[in-house]
Amino acid sequence: MGNSGKSVIIIGAGLAGLSAGIYGQMNAYNTTIFEMHNIPGGYCTSWKRKGYTFDGAMDWLNGVNLNEKDSTVWKELGYLDGRKVAYSDEMLCVRDREGNTWSFHSDPEKLENELMKLTSYEEDKEIIRKLCKDISKLIKAPVFDFIKPEAVFGPIDQFKMLFKFLPYMKMLIYYNQVMVRDYAKQFKDPRLSEIISYMYFDPIIPQSQFTPVYQLAGMNKKLLGFPEGGGGGLAAFLEKRYKEMGGKLYCKARVKKILVEDNKAVGVLLQDGTKHYADVVISACDGRAAIYDMLDGKFVNEHVDDVYNKGPVYPSLLRVYLGVNRDFKNEPHSVAYLLNEPLDIPGLYQNHRKDSIMIRHYSNLDPSFAPPGKSVINSVFFADYDYWKELYKDKERYKKEKEKVASIVTKYLEQLYPGIKDQIEVVDVATPVTYERYTGNYRGSIKAWIEDTTDVPDKLKKVGMTLPGLNNFYMIGQWMSYGGMIRVATSGRYVIQAICEKDRKKFVTHTA
Ligand SMILES: Cc1cc2nc3c(=O)[nH]c(=O)nc-3n(C[C@H](O)[C@H](O)[C@H](O)COP(=O)(O)OP(=O)(O)OC[C@H]3O[C@@H](n4cnc5c(N)ncnc54)[C@H](O)[C@@H]3O)c2cc1C
Q1: CB of residue 439 inside a 6 A radius of ligand 1
Q2: 360 lines ligand 1 (CB under 6 A)
Q3: 250-272 residue pLDDT tens
Q4: Where in the chain are the domains?
Q5: Best mutation site among 36, 43, 255, 281 for ligand 1, i.e. most ligand atoms within 8 A of its Cβ?
Q6: Region of 338 on the Ramachandran plot (φ > 0 left; ψ -120 to 50 alpha; else beta)
Q7: What is the CB-side half-sphere exposure of residue 373 using CA atoms within 13 A?
């Protein structure tokens, strides 16, 4: 492990960086990770408050069914060995204004029965039938293995993909080209239309209809689940594994510049003024910061500029975490409540009205997140980065606005669960500035790019994993491979595979 003599510096100990570190050690590179925060994990994290665990970023993890091909990366990393995984047969519920609950079941038959109850229009029924038939079809489709980041797909990969998914291509293209909220508009029944607009959590979300369709099929096949420990558990596991393999991890070590000599990346300059040298440098942090700040924008071309200047950035969030002295174990894990009066939440994405409130009962997915008899509740909103960034200039106003958001959410929860106000023991609010400050991600984006319904995938393919004119340098993580834990972990695997190939070494996925 780590004894080939060749050294690799990795910037950032998020999932991508940790994964690259582990695969690097497996392949006998001497790897060192520099992480600016005081703990590794990046977005994949959790924190404790008075006995409650608040999870930063894991709603569902892909690749948890060890019998399926998409679990390769977790299997090789050893993460799921002996770990309990919570599954659900519904993606989320919508509670309408009359108090009825509608579930997005992962069983297409149940889903069809549920949605049919919401309409008497034959045209709507036709669309529901098609939707459920397509989900059934997708359940039988081969699993996308995530083993190679789409941004580095060449013509052969494209061809293989086309061949594998040919029978499903029409459906995939159809759902990929329409946003959930636009898909919902075709239903004649207004209540059905509104409920369908929540099919992927929130109509505000810039997500194609393909995502909920794929996710429902995935949940049906148990490809998605919530492993015990959530995001913090995953990061802690990878950190331990990395260190056990001899990897070196330095926290509170912010990289300021990437050192370049003769058009080769040769090391990094840290904020504290120290210089560290290596044969290869991998950026596993914010892409823009690496390209335009750490490298001063010297290694770009029109494709790099195009994606980073024009690529639509996925929005950030406003999240209210509550630790509550009350048992909510009988509540659904995720429920969108439709409101009679819009919530007056400040600083929402593109000034959206808030006609609903999304509540997640995290401790129903992992009971260890709350002390016995108590619960963790989370409410989440897509947020306006500029609003919160401006406010952050005045820390007192920023703090007050966060308190205001928490009190609006609490007021609403009190209507829903009378008595809860006095049972709240801990409150924590994360804004886009929180996401940006703790991980360095541009505008606090939670998933890098809005990839579906846009030309980002084409643009990213023209950039790939390297920069023009710069040798011994690679980029991984969500800005290169799109967001999502499985994708970024796979990008860490893939970069080491590419380095092995360049060094004419056999890529291995186990320890010696
Ligand atoms: C709220 C939320 C919910 C999500 N839900 C899900 C989900 O349910 N399922 C799923 O699969 N994905 C989900 N995601 C997406 C997923 O968490 C991310 O795409 C993924 O964790 C990103 O990993 P990364 O390693 O690419 O980047 P990051 O996690 O951003 O890691 C980058 C690391 O680099 C460090 N860094 C930055 N700059 C420097 C510097 N100058 N010097 C040193 N270190 C630096 C940062 O501190 C950070 O640790 C969610 C994300 C969020 C925020």
Answers
A1: yes
A2: no
A3: 999 999 999 999 999 999 999 99
A4: 7-44+230-312+450-502, 104-221, 316-439
A5: 43
A6: beta
A7: 2
Q: Which among 88, 269, 439 is the best mutation to test ligand 1's pocket, defined by most ligand atoms within 8 Å of the CB?
A: 439
CATH topology of domain 316-439: Guanine Nucleotide Dissociation Inhibitor; domain 2 (3.30.519)
Residue 215: name the closest of 191, 177, 180, 169 by CA: 180
Give the C-alpha separation, 247 to 234, whole Å.
17
Please state the pTM of the whole predicted model.
0.96
- Give the separation between CA 142 and CA 489, rounded to whole angstroms: 21
Yes or no: say if 347 and 318 are a contact pair by the CB < 8 Å rule.
yes
For 26, list phi and psi in degrees, rounded to 5: -60, -30
| DSSP 8-state assignment for residue 348 | B
User: How many degrees, rounded to 5, is the angle at CA 225 between CA 103 and CA 379?
Assistant: 60
Task: Compute and round to an integer the Cα radius of gyration of the chain.
Answer: 23
Among 246, 249, 263, which residue's Cα sits nearest to residue 298? Answer: 263
Kindly give the distance from the C-alpha atom of residue 11 to the centroid of ligand 1, in angstroms, as a whole number.
13
Q: Which residues lie closer than 8 Å to 443 by C-beta, 6 or more apart?
A: 313, 315, 316, 385, 432, 436
If one looks up domain 7-44+230-312+450-502 in CATH, what number appears? 3.50.50.60
Q: What's the pLDDT tens digit per position in 281-321?
A: 999 999 999 999 999 999 999 999 999 999 999 999 999 99
Low-confidence ranges of the chain (pLDDT < 70): 1-4, 511-512
Same fold, 7-44+230-312+450-502 and 316-439: no
Triad 493, 451, 351: Cα angle to 5°: 130
> CB neighbours of 188 closer than 8 A, spacing ≥ 6?
119, 121, 123, 124
Would you state the structure tokens that stand for residue 118, as one six-digit string?
A: 């919401």
Dist. CA 58–CA 231, nearest whole Å: 5
The answer to whether the CB of 255 is under 6 A from ligand 1 is yes
What tokens appear for 402 in the block?
């966060």
Residue 429's beta-bridge partner residues? Answer: 320
Within a 10 A sphere around the Cβ of 94, how many other Cβ atoms? Answer: 23
CA angle 180, 214, 176 (to 5 degrees): 50
Q: Are 126 and 199 in contact (CB under 8 A)?
A: no
Hey, is 102 helix, strand or coil? strand
Instruction: For residue 382, report the phi and psi dihedrals to the nearest 5 degrees.
Output: -75, 135
